[in-house]
Amino acid sequence: MQKLLLAASLLISTAASAQVTLENTYVLNAPAMQSEDLFPIKLSTGEAKYVRFNSATRLMTLYNLNHSQFKQLTVPAPPAGYGAPGIDYVSDKLFNQDAALEYIVYYNRTNATSQETTMLNVYSEAGTLLLRSDSAYVNHIFNTSAGTKMLLSKAYPSLTGGNRSKVVAYALGGTLTTLKTQQAEADGLRQPYPNPATESLRLPYEVKKGTATLRITDAAGRTVATYQVDSTFDHLLLNAGELRSGVYFYQVVAADGSASPARRFVVSH
């Protein structure tokens, strides 16, 4: 009898502790054609942080898991003629062995013929420029037995018309630290595929009830396409030819305004 009472007590205790608890609410606000986002990262120490970035103010704020402020810095202003920045790969000990933060910034510019150019800069926490590459975006950063590698796609004019690009491989001084460990194969099905994409790609999503909006934004946070989706399907088949080469993010926004985490994909023509 005592054993049964103890087992029941443990079950009640487990159920009481396994509840979803609201920790904090971040109010994101940005003017039209700008964006403010919040996303998680993991540092080389194993610590996870929240990163909040506003493309209008260029202010990047990192928070601890208890939601206290960890660090705050301002991303360098875009060069003349370029628009508001977008950030990627906020990290430490990735591009070098310095313990300070590092990050990639994308600056976009559209010329008179509506052609878009992306400048990729890698900055240190102090604003020191570690790398600059015109007409480029990151395809992959990955760890290997020979060190960490970065593949950049660079577009350049074709003498015969059309689009031409080349992939440039870099060796990085540090190691890529990701939030995710090895996941089951099913988890991979929830990621954009193929990525990078040249013709079409599958954008997985989940809508439990009603309809929602699948929103695609460029690296600067500008909305480039929206689609109405529901629970009939679990993915959107996107024609990559509708987008210029570059880095994009997508998320599903429900009718009540709640949004799924943004997922990154690359289009390369």
TrEMBL record:
<feature type="domain" description="Secretion system C-terminal sorting">
    <location>
        <begin position="193"/>
        <end position="259"/>
    </location>
</feature>
<feature type="signal peptide">
    <location>
        <begin position="1"/>
        <end position="18"/>
    </location>
</feature>
<keyword id="KW-0732">Signal</keyword>
<protein>
    <submittedName>
        <fullName>T9SS type A sorting domain-containing protein</fullName>
    </submittedName>
</protein>
<dbReference type="InterPro" id="IPR026444">
    <property type="entry name" value="Secre_tail"/>
</dbReference>
<dbReference type="Pfam" id="PF18962">
    <property type="entry name" value="Por_Secre_tail"/>
</dbReference>
